[in-house]
Amino acid sequence: MDPEDPSPLHRFVVAKRSIGSIFEQLLEFVKSGSAFVDEAVQNQDLGPVAVEEQNLEMQSCATKLATIREVLLRRHMKVAFFGRTSNGKSTVINAMLRDRVLPSGIGHTTNCFLSVEGTDGDEAYLTTEASGEHRSVSTVNQLAHALHMDPALDSGSLVRVFWPKSRCALLRDDLVLMDSPGTDVTLELDSWIDKFCLDADVFVLVGNAESTLMNTEKLFFHKVSERISKPNIFILHNRWDASVTEPDYIDQVRKQHLDRCVRFLSEELRVVRADQAAGRIFFISAKEVLSSRTQRAQGMPETGGALAEGFQDRLREFQQFERTFEEFISQSAVRTKFEQHTVRAWQITEAIKAVMDAINIASADRKICCLEEREEQRDRLDFVRGQMNRLSDSVKDRIRTLTDDVAAKVASALLDQIHSLPVLVEEFRADFNPTPETLELYKAKLVQHVEERLVGCLAHRCSVGVLRDIRDAQRHMIDSVRPLVSLSVQQQLSAPSSSFELTYDLTLAALCADFREDIDFRFSLGWTALVTRFLGTTSAKRALSGAERGLKEGASLRDEVVVSIATGLVSVTSRTSMAVLVIGGVVWRSVGWRVIALSVSLYGLLYLYERLTWTDASKERALKQQFMEYAAYRLRAVVPVTSSACSQQVYKELTSTFNRLTQRVDLSEAELEGSIRQLTCRIQKLENIQRKSKAFRNRATELETQLEAFSARYLQAAD
Fold first, then answer.
1. Which of 96, 161, 234, 299 is the most buried (most CB within 10 A)?
2. How far is CA 342 from the centre of its chain?
3. Separation between Cα atoms, residue 234 and residue 239, nearest integer Å
4. What is the residue-averaged pLDDT of the chain?
5. Which of 7, 16, 200 is nearest to 714 (CA)?
6. Which segments within 320-359 are labelled E, that is strand?
7. Using CA atoms, how far apart are residues 470 and 480, in angstroms rounded to an integer?
């Protein structure tokens, strides 16, 4: 085949590049998917959206893809040449390479396996299994010398020859040509097959046209067919140029060789049908083709030199072998090298799609649960807020009613206690001495006694009922609030506090601070007493002190008349007084002096009696009476204040209780709002996971489409 002709081998290169690109995309895709699944597994807040098994499966897929990609990078087409020693295997390879790459001809026998493959460099070199060192070989003689000088090489060794691609077009398309020792030089055929032949795409049996197929050659390929299902085998009858010496028998000999080889391939090995076997058998002269191509490369005529008759026919058959070989190995290598990897890639994409579908379904189910839970939480929050609004109005009304009842009850009880002040004052017992210092101490004790008794009586009458009502109200608040708070907060709700006590701050000492007792002797029939009895205490004082000058503008007419009469009575210089004296004189004359003397005597005796009975006990009674009247007057004035103070205490207690409960409800509302926010965030994350899982699944489908296109173009077309 001419070097400028398009080579079918390039199909393998294009297919390799295509499948390599697909696997690159697939590997990046699986890595991204693995990171996504790992993130979903680690995010425990979302629930069982993804499990660790899925994460491990994604990691396993990534590892497998990385391994397959590395294998694909090393994939190449491999053809192995076998035959007896000196059948011209190396010459055939050289003819295909259009250059003397391997030692061949008289004196050169291949004693180990030689693989020839291309290198992008400009220098040829070889490596051995024992050493990866690059040993430069610029000529065939150097290569032959290097092979013969290495004592470690035997028939089971492999030497890799790297030939510059710029010097050989055949090696540019990832083709490796494997030369072998003669099948008749060793009995270790099984180890040869296991070591060098299992990855071969095509086997070429190079026979000698001057003899028939030998049993050693047949045995080798029988062993190959046992390990490889239907190996691809070509048979070359080399040195066919020798047939020109016997032109009369050439067709007969050719037919004999062809029939034997067809039976060998179709009946013994059963690798092809009989009608296909003839297309695998060629009659060539590798030495002539190599010589011709070498001359052409040197600018000499292709048919120059000593070439036997019929060379053009043998050259065309060799070219036909090359064309058939290249088309066959290209199709075969694409299938053998890439089909299983393509199937494996399909399996991986299907596994990834299953993982993404499972994650999508799980996240969708979880999202539905979160949506339902969020709706329940929102309904619960609306219910709590509505109930609290209604409860707040109800509690305010109850507090208002209860405080009004407390104010009325305390006012009533305090008025009753004011009416019983004489009893409370009379109960007081203490040493009485009219001296100023003792009087102050006595009054302080009296005030303390009266206040203690008043407070005690008020507490007895009011506190028990008020505290019971407060407890009932607090218990009602707690029972009403309990269904509105979370379980954790319900455990913190306790029974109503028993520390509250209703206090009655009468401040009697302050009220009576300006009390001034009058325990001086006052004759009951004296002028002052008479005027006081007749006019009253206030008017008497004003009358006796000349109050007519201090009368105010708004005084009543009756008070003015009374004060005027009293003033006339006590004023000796007034006209009224003179009238009284005149009337007294008339009476004197009328009744006589005896009656007047008797009256005066009785008046004096009465005065003497009262004066003698005005003892400390009398003074104490007078002081108590004065204090009782004064305290009653002052207490009546503070009844509204005291009842209001008690109602305020109850109001503060109940309000503080409800405020604490309201704070608990606010805490529950905050928990509900926080839970709703968390659920909203969780729903958003689940939606994001759904979108990503769908995107990954769609990407897997796209990669599957690329795999299907690759299969349709390269794998199915090869059928």
1. 96
2. 38
3. 16
4. 81
5. 16
6. none
7. 15
